[in-house]
């Protein structure tokens, strides 16, 4: 079911920018691969859900740390509202664990911040499908550990991210796209370890 939900719709923000279209195109294969990968975890079972959270935290924590290091808050004043490191730590804590292994990621330039933010903000969009699987499984220990997946539900943060992306000066598009690929790769590597 998750694999079926994995197509990346052209509906969201398609009127915004050519850069967003380029980002989606350049990362669609990586998105599909990651979606297939994460969908293979049994999210309805404690062990599988724990592995999913470990895989997510293994990339999210270092990517968010790199964003902070690069001054993400100067570009996104609402960063505290967007950050999900604390949320995923809460969920792992509820499962009686903490982030086991994180991947290393490069330092980010301003363009790197945008490409990384594209991937992290976009990753919220699949959450409603994952939450449905969890709800169907009906295990309260898992449902109570979904702060990360519920974080910023709705598309407000995604839409306001797209507005910001569209307002960027063209020129560093290749670097933005490279950093989005690197962020997807960080999730792949974290999934390898989980
Ligand atoms: C099993 C897990 C996942 C599922 C089922 C899923 C599903 C989806 C869906 C349905 C959309 C389109 C939403 C819409 O257009 O309204 C989407 C968009 C997106 N997802 Fe995922 N996703 C998953 C995991 C991830 C992860 C882990 C990342 C990044 C690390 C990610 C990054 C993105 C991005 C960047 C977009 C926006 C693409 C665009 O520009 O339109 N997704 N996802």
Automatic annotation (TrEMBL):
Q: Output the SUPFAM superfamilies linked to this UniProt entry.
A: Heme oxygenase-like (SSF48613)
Q: Which Pfam families match?
A: Heme_oxygenase
Which InterPro entries does its entry note?
Haem_Oase-like, Haem_Oase-like_multi-hlx
**Ranges in coiled-coil conformation:** none
Protein's recorded name = Biliverdin-producing heme oxygenase
């Amino acid at each position: 079911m998750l694999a079926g939900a994995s197509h990346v719709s052209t509906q969201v923000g398609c009127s915004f920018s050519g850069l967003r279209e380029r980002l989606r195109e350049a990362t669609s294969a990586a998105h599909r691969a990651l979606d297939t990968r994460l969908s293979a975890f049994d999210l309805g079972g404690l062990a599988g859900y724990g592995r999913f959270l470990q895989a997510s935290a293994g990339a999210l924590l270092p990517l968010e740390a790199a964003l902070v290091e690069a001054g993400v808050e100067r570009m996104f004043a609402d960063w505290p509202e967007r950050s999900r490191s604390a949320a995923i730590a809460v969920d792992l804590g509820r499962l009686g664990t903490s982030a086991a292994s994180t991947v290393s990621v490069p330092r980010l330039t301003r363009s790197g911040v945008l490409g990384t933010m594209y991937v992290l903000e976009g990753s919220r969009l699949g959450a409603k499908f994952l939450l449905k699987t969890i709800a169907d499984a009906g295990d309260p220990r898992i449902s109570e550990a979904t702060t990360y997946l519920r974080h910023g539900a709705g598309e407000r943060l995604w839409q306001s991210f797209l507005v910001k992306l569209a307002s960027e000066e063209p020129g560093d598009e290749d670097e933005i796209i490279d950093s989005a690929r690197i962020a997807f790769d960080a999730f792949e590597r974290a999934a390898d370890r989980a």
